[in-house]
Amino acid sequence: MSHWEIAVIREQGQTFAVVCVKDHVIDSPSEREGVIDLWTTELGCRVALLGARRGRTYGPNDIVRWLGGVGVHRLPWRKMTLAA
pLDDT tens, 60-78? Predict the structure, then answer.
């Protein structure tokens, strides 16, 4: 099983998710796309990634811009578990 920190946000009629990942995932094109594909399928909405330590982001430009103006500590984080 894998454990994740995820925030699902509803903003201006749009639903999207932010997934907290280890920083090296942001640096690896195959890993970051794999995580985005996994959670897009699981949650049924668009997904952006947030690096756990450095706070770097990756994903759709509008979500990344939105994250730049929001304190990520204020997002509705919850723990989720996926079977392997």
Answer: 999 999 999 998 999 999 9
Distance CA 36, CA 47 (A): 6
Convert the pLDDT of each residue in 11-40 to its tens digit. Answer: 989 999 999 999 999 999 999 999 999 999
- Give dist(CA 74, CA 1) in Å, integer: 27
Three-class SS state of 77: strand
